[in-house]
């Protein structure tokens, strides 16, 4: 009898993805779905695969829900899957073998990312460029509440790097450019708010240097050029991502408020009142 494996999945309005995802993990001994109060049929679909469905408050990003999901899992071995990801059978077999061998405590898994219908070769999203610890023994892993903070592995854990492109997660990352921009806007706000709360200073010189390095890293070192115009565009967009975080941060500091739109609206109203007053003086 093989060692039991728990799969944890976080969801929010994933009715178009969740069935395909669950079909590829129904071999697991336990499936845990943590849903952020979806408005669509996500939960209804998930109920056909598991009765371990938990609700979690909406936070705008996945990390807190993953942390909560991990706490609900009963197996020693955990596989973390996103709703827009698929687990190929070759990957499943490798993971089961690793669990049985007991030589490792965690596995770094490659990701085959699709952007706007295209499988990425480079730009930081190629299979062996975008690798994450998604399979591990529960006691060796910790998730924080920070956006894109990913997972923290214990220093004494034995890590296996799965350097086989054919064993990559298939990740349908972004469907459309609009989808990308929507997440772009949401995540930059969350990250800017995090910096503001921790009093991280706005440093223009550092921003300029890091932006140049980011483009060079993605387009040249990560071979973004191999992805053609997508690679060029996404390299520039990732530079813009950092710029927008810092632009939002700067405005927050100027307004001394996370919700700076309210402060700016008051400022605009005062200007409008002054202009309106000019007419009443006639």
UniProtKB/TrEMBL annotation:
<dbReference type="InterPro" id="IPR001173">
    <property type="entry name" value="Glyco_trans_2-like"/>
</dbReference>
<feature type="domain" description="Glycosyltransferase 2-like">
    <location>
        <begin position="6"/>
        <end position="117"/>
    </location>
</feature>
<keyword id="KW-0808">Transferase</keyword>
<protein>
    <submittedName>
        <fullName>Nucleotide-diphospho-sugar transferases</fullName>
    </submittedName>
</protein>
<dbReference type="InterPro" id="IPR029044">
    <property type="entry name" value="Nucleotide-diphossugar_trans"/>
</dbReference>
<dbReference type="Pfam" id="PF00535">
    <property type="entry name" value="Glycos_transf_2"/>
</dbReference>
<dbReference type="GO" id="GO:0016740">
    <property type="term" value="F:transferase activity"/>
</dbReference>
């Amino acid at each position: 009898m093989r060692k039991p494996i728990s799969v944890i999945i976080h969801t929010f309005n994933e009715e178009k993805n969740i069935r395909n995802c669950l079909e590829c993990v129904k071999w697991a001994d336990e499936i845990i779905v943590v849903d952020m109060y979806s408005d669509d049929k996500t939960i209804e679909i998930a109920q056909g695969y598991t009765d371990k469905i938990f609700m979690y408050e909406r936070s705008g990003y996945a990390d807190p829900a993953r942390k909560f999901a991990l706490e609900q899992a009963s197996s020693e071995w955990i596989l973390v899957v996103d709703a827009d990801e698929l687990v190929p059978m070759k990957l499943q077999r490798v993971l089961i073998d690793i669990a049985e061998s007991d030589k490792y405590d965690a596995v770094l898994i490659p990701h085959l990312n699709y952007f706007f219908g295209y499988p990425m070769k480079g730009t930081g999203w190629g299979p062996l460029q975008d690798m994450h610890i998604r399979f591990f023994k529960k006691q060796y892993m910790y998730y924080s509440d920070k956006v894109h903070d990913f997972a923290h592995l214990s220093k004494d854990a034995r890590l296996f790097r799965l350097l086989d492109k054919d064993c990559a997660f298939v990740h349908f990352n972004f469907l459309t450019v609009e989808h990308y921009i929507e997440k772009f806007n949401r995540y930059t706000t969350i990250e800017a708010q995090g910096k503001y709360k921790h009093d991280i200073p706005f440093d223009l010189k550092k921003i300029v240097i890091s932006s140049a390095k980011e483009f060079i890293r993605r387009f040249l070192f990560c071979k973004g050029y191999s992805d053609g115009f997508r690679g060029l565009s996404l390299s520039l967009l990732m530079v813009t991502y950092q710029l927008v975080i810092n632009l939002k941060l700067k405005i927050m500091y100027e307004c001394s408020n996370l919700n700076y739109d309210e402060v700016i609206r008051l400022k605009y109203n005062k200007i409008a009142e002054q202009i309106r007053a000019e007419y009443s003086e006639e």
